[in-house]
Amino acid sequence: MPQIRPVSDLRNNFAEISKIVHENGEPVFLTKNGYGDMVVMSIEEYEKMLLHSEITFKLLEAEKEAGSTNKRLSHREVFSKLREQLADGKEK
């Protein structure tokens, strides 16, 4: 269940909010004058969220590219090409 707290709790109960976001791994939603204002989350959860977003973006990009061509590569071809690029010190 999401934690919803007034923004003043960030100042008055910082340690408690910090404990919630680190132990539960869930964000705390802060309100100001009864309306949503901001979200507080641990750095670890934020980084996971960014990684998930990046992976999702890359998968969507790959789907779009796959839809625009009939060319398909086997996993052996893909990994062989990656090994060559790593050996050459290039990223593509």
Order of strands in the sheet with most strands: 1-2-3
Radius of gyration: 22 Å
Overall number of structural domains: 2
The residue fraction in helices comes out at 55-70%
Number of strands: 3
- Name the overall outline: elongated
Q: Structural class, judged by helices and strands?
A: alpha+beta
Distance between the termini: 42 Å
Strand percentage lies at: 15-25%
Question: How many strands, what sense, and barrel or not for the largest sheet?
Answer: 3 strands, mixed
Structure report:
There is one protein chain. The protein is an alpha+beta fold. The protein has helices at 8-12, 14-24, 43-67, 75-88, and strands at residues 3-6, 28-32, 35-40. The protein has 2 domains: 3-41, YefM-like fold; 45-88. Strand 2 and strand 3 (35-40) form a beta hairpin. The model has no long low-confidence stretch (mean pLDDT 92).
